[in-house]
Amino acid sequence: MSETLKVAMVQQACGTDREQNLELSLRFIREAAAKGAELVVLQELHCGPYFCQCEDTSFFDWAESIPGPAAARVGTQAHESGVVVVSSLFERRAAGVYHNTAVVFDSDGSIAGKYRKMHIPDDPGFYEKFYFTPGDLGFHPIDTSVGRLGVLVCWDQWFPEAARLMALRGAEVLIYPTAIGWTPSDPDDEKERQRDAWTTVQRSHAIANGLPVIVVNRTGFEPDPTGASEGIHFWGSSFVAGPQGEIIAQGNIDAEQVIVAEIERGRTETVRRIWPFLRDRRVDAYNGLNQRLLD
Fold first, then answer.
1. Were 217 and a residue from 3, 146, 178, 227 both cysteine, which residue would form a disulfide, CB within 3.0 to 4.6 Å?
2. Per-residue pLDDT for 1 more than 80?
3. Which CATH number fits domain 4-290: 3.60.70.12, 3.60.20.30, 3.60.110.10, 3.40.50.1970?
């Protein structure tokens, strides 16, 4: 492998036309490949609008099997472009069992592996527990032609345990397809606190594990399909951080973009030699972490 890995983050706005959304994702994959990317990461649920703003059983019709039609098209594009692609799809596993699933396609178009979102939120505007069964594949990196990828999804990004387990199993990079944004009426200072917290917690995963982190968020305003709430203004800001949390590249808040960055593969080894956090873990003293609370 080369000493660097060229990655591309595809940050797009999604409308109600699912075919148009998917076609845009495929076009951006081609654009990323033309810019020299070896790994292309798409945002969470890139084929459609973020339907979890409300609870509506009709949206289950959007789910597909994996392999399935959407997966086949992304896999074909990965093969034609010669890149590894991380795609986030609404998976229909069985009647009544659906997952929020990240699928990793290798550069030959084959499915290298998948990850089912483990942490499922249930908050105003993010009613994901109505739609998604919690993942059951655990936290296992996926081996590809560009390296071992620790793929997680959105709400997982707030939990250090998920990042740590990926690191302990040999992930060479942490990847988070994401859909997060503001309530439009929030004051500007509150909006900035939220976005700053989101960036900070993921930079902390990079630092604590000595790994680069790739975070890809959607952009644009999406109304609540029911009109019951103000909708969500997705804040974009996709970024790559190095193993000391340094920002290598970052996208804009309100722009559809293909953001390309180079990751230096050897920095994990260099950083872990001076900050040996994994060496100094007190694994004999962490038994309480498998409890909800400690009384």
1. 178
2. no
3. 3.60.110.10
